[in-house]
UniProtKB/TrEMBL annotation:
Family annotation (Pfam families): BFN_dom
Protein name: BFN domain-containing protein
Organism of provenance: Edaphobacter dinghuensis
MF-aspect GO terms: nuclease activity
InterPro entries: BFN_sf, Bi_nuclease_dom
Positions of the UniProt region annotated as Disordered: 1-21
Domain BFN per the UniProt entry, residue ranges: 20-151
């Protein structure tokens, strides 16, 4: 994986691969214990969910786009979208690509001048950008497996309980950010 200030050029790869699971945003909520925002991603083909804890500002950027709230001036993710468009680039997909030391990593896949460019990103930023581009969000299958295994450990039994609770939430439970 490239460092946060580098991009990598690839051959075209717009759709998700077999190693990726397409997800949608199920909702945005607050962790009842830590009061930290959680983006809840849900597999489009099953009930599997992946909670990703994010920062307050990133959650706000996601919420603004989920609610289609206009702001008087461009917010950071709007600026990134405008910048990409101004450079004739397009975001094709985002992928939550790795889970390492309880930290998720993501990659933004863009097309520019016929070449595919990948950018390392925080998942919250990648998701906020994906919403603005209306492009798919994927999670690497290995990330889903690793998050299940991490949740299955004795010291993180609360994570597995949280996962089961998230999978069983109804629309009213998700609050105002439900999709």
């Amino acid at each position: 994986m490239k460092s946060h200030d580098q991009a990598e050029v690839h051959q075209p790869a717009d759709a998700g691969s077999e190693s990726e699971v397409e997800m949608q945003i199920r909702g945005l909520m607050t962790d009842p214990i830590t009061n930290m925002p959680i983006v809840v991603l849900k597999d489009v083909a099953s009930d599997m969910v992946l909670p990703i804890w994010v920062g307050i500002f990133e959650a706000n950027a996601i919420a603004l786009e989920l609610e289609k709230t206009a702001t008087p001036r461009p917010m950071t993710h709007d600026l990134l979208q405008n910048l990409a468009r101004g450079l004739n680039a397009q975001v094709n997909k985002v992928v939550v690509s790795e889970l390492r030391d309880d930290t998720f990593y993501a990659v933004i896949w863009m097309n520019h001048a016929g070449e595919t460019v990948t950018l390392d990103a925080r998942p919250s930023d990648a998701i906020a950008l994906a919403l603005r581009w209306d492009c798919p969000i994927y999670v690497n299958r290995q990330v889903l497996e690793n998050s299940k295994q991490a949740a299955g450990g004795a010291q993180t039994i609360n994570a597995e309980e949280m996962r089961r609770w998230l999978e069983n939430l109804n629309d009213d439970d998700m609050g105002r950010y439900k999709m």
